[in-house]
């Protein structure tokens, strides 16, 4: 059980108690529902931390694949990125479309790290250059387009 309040840091005199079969269910700070981690302040930090920890080994795999291939094909590496990294980044995206721009910036950073690793580019490579050579939109634009195509 999560209690959403206007002032999440405020301590209330009478905390909410829910009893089911004489068992008290205590409020939680966060919960996971259909793979999306929702916290009581709806700031999505736990969900982003979860995405980052889940995608880190996949970024390492993309980096390994781009370095070990004799001449890696850009299209192949982008398809691998789409299948093992972008699917995790975009899971639950309809909920995330309502979040603050700072959250989208953080998600964009995650995507850019994965793209740099897939293409074998150094960390100082421009984001605009990455999106230009891959012909991939920014993650928020892609999520919005995807939702619009599904709603038609």
Average of pLDDT = 85
Low-confidence stretches: none
Summed up, the domain count is 2
Oligomer: single chain
Strand content: 5-15%
Element-by-element helix/strand order? EEEEHHHHHH
The coarse overall form would be elongated
User: Strands of the largest sheet, in order across it?
Assistant: 1-2
Q: Strand tally, please?
A: 4
Helicity range: 55-70%
What Rg, in angstroms, do the CA atoms define?
A: 20 Å
Q: Describe the biggest sheet?
A: 2 strands, antiparallel
Structural class: mainly alpha
- Rounded to the nearest angstrom, the distance between the terminal CA atoms is 35 Å
The helix tally amounts to 6
Written description of the protein model:
With 152 residues, this protein is mostly helical. It folds into two domains: 1-42, no CATH class; 44-151, no CATH class. 56% of the residues lie in helices and 9% in strands. The protein contains six helices and four strands; from the N terminus they run E-E-E-E-H-H-H-H-H-H. The strands form two sheets. It has a two-stranded antiparallel sheet with strand order 1-2. A hairpin with a 2-residue loop joins strand 3 and strand 4 (36-39). Helix 1 packs antiparallel against helix 2 (74-90) and helix 2 runs antiparallel to helix 4 (101-119). The relative contact order is 0.11.
